[in-house]
Amino acid sequence: PSVGDIFLGAPAVDAIVCPSNSFGVNGSGGIENQIYRHYGIGILEELQEVIENEFEGEILVGQAVVLSGLDRTARNEKSDWSKMNDGNLIKFLIVAPTMRIYKYSSSTPNAYLAFRAVILAVREHNRKNKQNKIARVLVPGLGTSGAKMPPQRCAKQMLEAYETFAVGLPTKKFRLRPSSHTEMLRDHIYLCLDEKVESKKVPNV
Predict the structure, then answer these.
(1) pLDDT band at 126 (very low <50, low <70, confident <90, very high)
(2) Which domain of life does the UniProt lineage start with (predicted)?
(3) CB neighbours of 48 closer than 8 A, spacing ≥ 6?
(4) Full set of structural domains in the chain with CATH
């Protein structure tokens, strides 16, 4: 893991994650704009084409898409990219919605769902592309910009997704096969609340 500016001094990677809305339209500014500048504005057209053809026009929170074969010549060369990814174009762009439309999603599990989708999308890509695998992924704080999720809550949700679906911790396996609705209700509340109010809001079983 790394901290700080995702575009300056971050380690070289195979893929970068772009949080988005469900329709692939640019409207929030922030980190999305920076990522699209890295690849060139044409990446938006490619993304919308994929969403239309593979997702019937809308990619839901909890889904992700991997874009590959990206063209370096389309990148905005007016910017200095030498400090990002060792000056190289990042090969893969993973788009994972954190909200359907641009609306605050601070009290949702959307960072968890989006990062879960990223992990599963990378896993599926690597299963199908054994000679061109994604090994290292650069991920911003999902939902902390346009969706206004508090960074600490986002970090908690992303860690839970990572430990469940990337690491496979035994203590997280209940999410793969829950024993009851109440168990998942407790988990949902845990994901969506800050530490200081969890004990008061999570019901007993």
Answers:
(1) very high
(2) Eukaryota
(3) 23, 24, 25
(4) 15-168 (3.40.220.10)
